[in-house]
C-alpha cells in the first residue's frame, strides 16, 4: 500500500490509482488482500537504472477485466 501511495506522485499515477481500486475491492470482498489474489490482478516490474530503479505496479490483463467489471 505504501509503495502505491508513493507511486501516485510519479508519472505512473493512473496505474497506481487502478491498483488501489483493485486493492480496495479485494479488501471489501474477502476482508483482506491475499497474495494469491493480488498477484493475479496486479503485476510489478522494475523501471529505471540502478541506483534509481523503482518498482512500478500495473494491473495485469485479468486485473483490467476485473476493473471493467466494477
Summarize the structure.
By secondary structure, this protein is of the alpha+beta class. The protein is built from four helices and two strands, in the order αααββα. It has one domain.
Distance between the termini: 20 Å
Portion in beta strands = 15-25%
Annotation, overall tally of beta strands: 2
Low confidence ranges: none
Secondary-structure element sequence?
A: HHHEEH
Number of helices: 4
Cα-atom Rg, whole angstroms?
12 Å
* Domains, number: 1
What best-fitting shape do the alpha-carbon axes yield? elongated
What features would you describe in this structure?
- The protein has one domain (2-68).
- The chain is elongated and about 40 Å long.
- It has helices at 2-7, 13-30, 35-41, 61-68, and strands at residues 42-47, 54-59.
- A two-stranded antiparallel sheet has the order 1-2.
- Strand 1 and strand 2 form a beta hairpin.
- The model has no long low-confidence stretch (mean pLDDT 94).
- It has 4 helices and 2 strands.
- It is of the alpha+beta class.
Amino acid at each position: 500500500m505504501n509503495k502505491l501511495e508513493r507511486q501516485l506522485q510519479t508519472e505512473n499515477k493512473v496505474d497506481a490509482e487502478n491498483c488501489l481500486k483493485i486493492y480496495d475491492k479485494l479488501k471489501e470482498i474477502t476482508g483482506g488482500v491475499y497474495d494469491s489474489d493480488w498477484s493475479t490482478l496486479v503485476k510489478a516490474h522494475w523501471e529505471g537504472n540502478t541506483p534509481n530503479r523503482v518498482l512500478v505496479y500495473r494491473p495485469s490483463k485479468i486485473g483490467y477485466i476485473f476493473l471493467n467489471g466494477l
